[in-house]
Design goal:
Blueprint (H helix, E strand, L loop, with lengths): L1 E3 L1 E10 L1 E7 L2 E6 L4 E7 L7 E7 L5 E2 L3 E4 L4 E8 L2 H21 L5 H8 L6 H7 L8 E6 L7 E7 L5 E6 L3 E6 L8 E6 L7 E6 L19 E9 L2 E7 L3 E5 L7 E6 L9 E5 L10 E6 L13 E7 L3 E8 L17 E4 L8 E6 L3 E6 L7 E7 L11 E6 L4 E6 L2 E8 L2
Antiparallel strand pairs: 1-27, 2-30, 3-4, 4-5, 5-6, 7-9, 8-9, 9-10, 10-11, 12-13, 13-14, 14-15, 16-17, 17-18, 18-19, 20-21, 21-22, 22-23, 24-25, 25-26, 26-27, 28-29, 29-30
Length: 422
């Protein structure tokens, strides 16, 4: 373990996950791979976290790697998304290309023709064509009664379409879901009224121009590369990471009519997709600041690793990049074994301080002071050892609880609890 201005409090040996959130005395972990679904941990004594409840998934067609808690810790919300969704998305493209080419050519196309048409790897074509014909109809959102933490009870499971829901933000009244939907390329924003958790009602949709293929729009890139990844509510705004489409600010003062008021796209010059975007609820030097983090995808040597951006929002509509924050490969012992290295996610709330805790897959957890948003600086690092033998460190998500304790969740295995001492 490497710790600079961090003190290790505890390690919990649990299956790897996609999200950890803390509410009161409990931490909730959405696991990455089936059959693991969601775990509930008692962290009232943070030095001895204890799993008190667990939801297992039925089968291996879906994963449930995101979780939120509302209504004073009595309601838990989890996603349900097709496992290996990228593989199946490419499969649908290959299957559709095969069907189309068969009609156009009057014969069955060969694997190379399918690969060229679908923009996929020719070696994978046989498996992709088979996968593209496999139906999936389970994806969506599940809402649970968790008054008894040891025995969560399902209230409802509502479906959102396509490969199901990926990430979501939530409050006691609405849920803001990134999900596929029939007629659209990639994930869009779907807003549901959950005032009555047993009867969610659709309110509105929002998408990036080009996604609504059923409406005659043409996607700018293949396979949903420009799509909603995540939208976070900040006051009457949602701030959206749009994958290879950059970032967007969405006005939701009228929740039934979400409207784009700001947009900035730095692709393809910067190759990694836009992951999470938020507007801190305070100004710095009189300026409105937007914080944006990319996700490390496949890395090509010579190009930049995924990193953290800072923007100024000028006159309420214009996004101006003002600085970036990077972690170098030499700052971790886990950078060169083939796993993802760069940035992924930061904590999804601010406590009034210009301090950000962000995860770098192979470089652990980084504390970033952005009191000067033109020159953000690292003020702490926490790099735990990989918990699963033979696999690299992949710090995937981070949470900060009301006590100021920091939770770092590994994608493959393990949850660390640490205290920031800086």
């Amino acid at each position: 373990m490497i710790a600079e201005n961090f003190k290790s409090i505890a390690r919990c040996d649990i299956a790897g996950g996609g999200q950890v959130v803390v509410d009161g005395d409990y931490a909730y972990v959405g696991h990455m791979d089936p059959p693991h679904g969601t775990s509930i941990l008692d962290v009232s004594n943070p030095s001895a976290p204890k799993v008190v409840g667990h939801i297992a998934l039925e089968g291996d067609a879906s994963h449930s790697h995101k979780v939120r808690v509302i209504h004073d810790g009595t309601i838990m919300v989890t996603n349900l998304e097709r496992a290996r969704r990228g593989f199946f998305r490419r499969g649908r493209a290959a299957f559709a290309a095969k069907e189309r080419l068969t009609k156009e050519l009057g014969r069955e196309p060969d694997p190379q023709e399918i690969a060229d048409a679908a923009e996929v790897n020719v070696e994978q074509v046989p498996d992709l064509v088979v996968a593209g014909a496999v139906p999936y109809d389970d994806g969506g959102i599940r809402i649970w009664d968790i008054k008894d933490k040891a025995n969560p009870k399902l209230i409802t499971h509502f479906k959102t379409g396509a490969d199901g829901s990926h990430r979501f933000d939530i409050d006691d009244n609405y849920i803001y879901v990134s999900s596929g939907k029939e007629g659209f390329s990639g994930n869009i924003l779907q807003i549901f009224d959950i005032g009555d958790p047993a009867k969610p009602e659709p309110v509105a949709d929002w998408w990036i121009p080009g996604q609504h293929v059923a409406g005659g729009e043409t996607p700018p890139l293949a396979h949903g590369a420009v799509q909603l990844h995540h939208a976070m509510r900040c006051g009457d705004e949602l701030w959206a990471g749009c994958w290879h489409g950059g970032l967007a600010g969405i006005d939701v003062s009228d929740i039934s009519k979400p409207t784009t008021f700001a947009r900035y796209d730095y692709h393809p010059a910067f190759p990694h997709p836009t992951h999470t975007v938020m507007r801190p609820p305070f100004k710095l030097g009189g300026k409105d600041i937007i914080v944006c983090m990319d996700e490390e995808a496949s890395h090509v040597r010579g190009q930049a690793h995924a990193f953290l951006w800072f923007f100024e929002l000028v006159n309420g509509t214009e996004l101006k990049p003002i600085s970036t924050f990077h972690v170098a490969e030499g700052e971790t012992p886990y950078a060169r074994d083939g796993a993802r290295f760069g940035a992924h996610q930061y904590q999804e709330h601010f406590d009034g301080r210009p301090l950000l805790f962000g995860t770098w897959f192979s470089a652990g957890l980084r504390a970033v002071d952005f009191s000067d948003p033109f020159l953000p600086k690292e003020v702490g690092a926490f790099i735990p050892e990989p918990m699963e033998q033979g696999r690299n460190l992949q710090t995937n998500d981070v949470e900060v609880d009301a006590r100021g304790l920091v939770y770092a969740l590994d994608r493959f295995r393990g949850l660390d609890i640490a205290e920031f001492t800086g």
